[in-house]
From TrEMBL:
Biased composition (Basic residues): 591-600, 665-676
Boundaries of every Helicase ATP-binding domain copy: 99-274
GO MF terms, alphabetically ordered: ATP binding; hydrolase activity; RNA binding; RNA helicase activity
Alphabetical UniProt keywords: ATP-binding, Helicase, Hydrolase, Nucleotide-binding, RNA-binding
Protein name per Swiss-Prot or TrEMBL: ATP-dependent RNA helicase
Originating gene: LOC108823387
Family annotation (SUPFAM superfamilies): P-loop containing nucleoside triphosphate hydrolases
Acidic residues compositional bias, start-end: 681-690
Biased composition (Basic and acidic residues): 563-582, 647-664, 691-701
Enzyme Commission code(s) on record: 3.6.4.13
């Protein structure tokens, strides 16, 4: 932060003035404290031209609860200058409600709509607390601001730097990815304010020598409900345990937690609940116009493409469920040239790249595809015109945060949500949560089908085919993993059609491993998804990484009936007689409830088989290669001819293979028979010798029995477990053989 050069005398003078200012501020704050539990918004603004601050020499100060301008608050001159330079003059409601309580040192739970200015509502108390404590470099960490994502932390850091420009505190951004942790370790002990993601902070607590926060004065949890949820529990609890209990704690979010156990974890002291928009008619900004459309899963890309093509002059933020979907839609749409720049952001991108994409998007009309990594807190500088949710969010809070990327700070914005028919219940949930969303229908004349173009692309770009397969699998997995089973039911999706809509010439093989208990039934995909590599749930970069086991591809609690995608040979439809579900089977699966649908729009000649590794092998790729990029125009005759020849070849090879296999089996049986017979001969010889030396008849009988047991089951009737042992030799045959041997010798 700015440190202009000053003489010693000037410095002393400034210090004295500062001390005086602090004293006055403290008196002001103390004397005009708002009542605990009161809502400052209920108080009217100060009369115009009213005097502010110390009104009389005997210590009468102006009220600061209910005021509407920053310069009417008991805050330092440095902060006021910072605010003024950043052009913040009038307070927004969330700031008016929170600041009077926060400035007098109270713990706070602040809930206010997205884009309502919560960042300043905690940045100002941070600066003021340290200022009033006359915090210096030697005092170490005085404030920690925890954010759930890197972007959000970086954004908060920017606001802090802007508004705190005239203070002399040092502030550090600890988010990982940007700088090596070793570089941070050298400097982190000199920082007064840390803005960080939980994982990185914990890393410093664990690894950085002498790193300590025992002097901490104020702790901020931004997007508190997210930071407090289970994904961060493993990181947040050890962090909190290392912080001093006597501190001020401020929690902010658009969807706030009130769970007692969450608050107990933070040891809050009589927190104030600031719920700025709780009583209002809508939970989302009033300037936001929200629509929902029912779109079958297989029509989503058509709809999205058509939407983009008709909104070329907007900035559109598009939410998809998984990184692989983002990658696929971005790459595929890019190749189809929609006429507007397309960008994407997901958790696996480097921090620099993400920041770059983020600022390019703000700069120019474009489409930004993203996962929930951008769901919360990010302020796109009021640039987003549309938020389009192609995939239904997990829950209502998630919806609120996503749409909150537009219509910020009282500016207009629009949002569109696609729901599959089985997700329609979400509309009810949104209405219950005071979200005014209109059900609309697409203008069918304007909807452009693109599955043909996508199919053609996948033939021309085999790499894209792999991306499409992964998008397909990860989407199904994400739907299955959702907790709200009333809304998310993967069995209700038309999987064949969905696969075709991505341009996939063949539905990626999904294996249903039938485990012993119904609860343990899992899907497995033939597509190799490396553990950890494909975990789309960890897209939130600050979230702890989870190792994904292969078995976990579609979750652990899958019920057998829930997901009746049976291995099924192509062309046989849903043959339920195939019970061997553990064995990977080639071909398309069908839902128990659905008939196999042949997709009409899938271009002929582009069907691809998958090898044992799940890699696509396109039998018609050579023929298809001649097709143009946007159209697969295969010669019908050439294709039939190709199939005919291929069929003949396959039949020939098949016949020969069967012959060889039969021969091998016969030889094997013969060998086994001879071996058994030899064994029998040896036993008989041994028996004979024993017989000679044996003293009793009883012993001989026992050995006979043992010899027979080698070939027969316990019953000695040629049946084993109720099955006939076809490989065994009859008793008569054996006795005849033994007799022969004896007579031969
Ligand atoms: N007092 C103010 N006057 C004018 N603009 C403001 C004021 N306070 C905040 N803003 C602007 O409003 C926008 C939203 O602010 P902010 O990002 O703090 O919202 P938020 O409530 O934290 O949103 P979210 O819940 O999405 O995180 C920002 O662009 C910010 O610069």
């Amino acid at each position: 932060m700015g440190r202009p050069k000053k003489t010693r005398g000037m410095k002393k003078q400034m210090r004295l003035a500062e001390e005086e200012e602090i004293l006055l501020l403290k008196q002001w704050i103390e004397s005009q404290k708002p009542d605990s539990g009161s809502n400052p918004l209920a108080l009217g603004p100060l009369p115009e031209r009213a005097k502010v601050g110390k009104l009389q020499e005997d210590g009468v100060f102006s009220r600061y609860a209910g005021v509407t301008r920053f310069d009417q608050l008991p805050i330092s001159d440095k902060t006021k200058r910072g605010l003024k330079e950043a052009k913040f003059v009038d307070m927004l409601d969330s700031q008016r409600a929170a600041l009077p309580h926060a400035l007098c040192g109270r713990d706070l739970l602040g809930a206010a709509r997205t884009g309502s200015g919560k960042t300043l509502a905690f940045v100002i108390p941070v600066l003021e607390t340290l200022h009033k404590e006359r915090w210096g470099p030697e005092d170490g960490v005085g404030c920690i601001i925890i954010s759930p994502t890197r972007e959000l932390a970086a954004q908060t850091f920017t606001v802090l730097n802007k508004v705190g420009k005239f203070h002399k505190f040092s502030a550090g951004l600890l988010i990982g990815g940007r700088e090596g942790v070793d570089v941070e370790k050298e400097r982190v002990n000199e920082m007064n304010i840390l803005v960080c993601a939980p994982g990185r902070l914990l890393q410093h607590m664990d690894e950085t020598p002498n790193f300590e926060c025992s002097n901490l004065k104020i702790l901020i949890l931004d997007e508190a409900d997210r930071v407090l949820d289970s994904a961060f529990k493993g990181q947040l609890d050890p962090i909190i345990s290392q912080l001093p209990k006597r501190r001020q704690t401020l929690l902010f979010s658009a969807t706030q937690t009130k769970k007692v156990k969450d608050l107990a974890r933070l040891s809050l002291r009589d927190p104030e609940y600031i719920s700025v928009h709780a009583e209002s008619v809508t939970a989302t900004p009033t300037t936001l116009s929200q629509s929902v459309m029912i779109v079958p899963v297989e029509k989503k890309l058509d709809m999205l493409w058509s939407f983009i093509r008709t909104h070329l002059n907007d900035r559109i933020l598009v939410f998809l469920s998984t990184k692989k979907q983002v990658k696929f839609v971005h790459e595929a749409f890019n190749k189809l040239r929609p006429g507007i720049p397309l960008k994407s952001i997901h958790g696996k991108m480097s921090q620099e790249k993400r920041m770059g994409v983020y600022s390019q998007f703000i700069d120019k009309q474009s489409v930004l595809f993203c996962t929930d990594v951008l769901e919360r807190g990010l302020d796109f500088d009021q640039a987003v015109d549309w938020v389009v949710q192609v995939d239904c969010p997990d829950d209502v809070p998630s919806y609120i945060h996503r749409v909150g990327r537009t219509a910020r700070c009282n500016t207009p914005g629009k949002s569109l949500l696609f729901l599959t028919p089985s997700e329609e219940k979400m509309v009810e949930r949104l209405h219950e949560a005071k979200i005014p969303i209109k059900l609309i229908k697409a203008n069918s004349d304007k909807v452009q089908e693109i599955s043909r173009q996508l199919a053609s692309l996948l033939v021309s770009f085999p790499d894209l085919q792999t991306v499409a397969q992964r998008a397909f699998i990860t989407y199904l997995r994400s739907i299955h993993k959702r907790r709200d089973k009333e809304i998310f039911d993967v069995t209700k999706l038309s999987i064949e059609d969905f696969s075709a809509s991505l341009g996939l010439p063949f539905t990626p093989r999904i294996r249903f491993a039938n485990l012993k208990t119904k609860k343990k039934g899992v899907f497995e995909s033939s597509i190799d998804i490396e553990p950890g590599n494909d975990d789309d749930d960890d897209d939130n970069v600050a979230a702890p990484r989870r190792v994904v086991k292969r078995k976990d591809l579609l979750g652990d609690d899958l019920e057998e009936e829930d997901f009746a995608l049976r291995p099924n040979e192509e062309g046989k439809g849903g043959d339920k007689s195939n019970k061997d579900e553990g064995v990977p089977m080639p071909g398309t699966r069908v839902s128990k409830n659905k008939k196999l649908k042949i997709s009409q729009h899938r271009p002929s000649g582009t069907r691809v088989k998958f090898d044992e590794e799940g890699n696509p092998v396109a039998p018609l790729a050579v023929v298809a290669a001649s097709a143009t990029e946007t159209e697969v125009a295969l010669d019908e005759e050439a294709r039939n001819d190709y199939y005919k020849k291929l069929g003949e070849q396959l039949r020939k090879v098949d016949h020969e293979d069967k012959k060889v296999e039969k021969e091998k089996r016969r030889e094997k049986r013969m060998k086994a028979k001879i071996k058994r017979k030899q064994g029998d001969m040896e036993e008989e010889e041994e028996e004979e010798g024993d017989e000679r030396s044996a003293s009793s008849e009883e012993e001989t009988g026992r050995k006979r029995k043992r010899a027979k047991k080698t070939y027969f089951d316990d019953n000695g009737d040629g049946e084993e477990g109720g099955k006939i042992n076809t490989d065994s030799v009859s008793i008569a045959e054996l006795e005849e053989m033994a007799l022969k041997l004896i007579t031969q010798s």
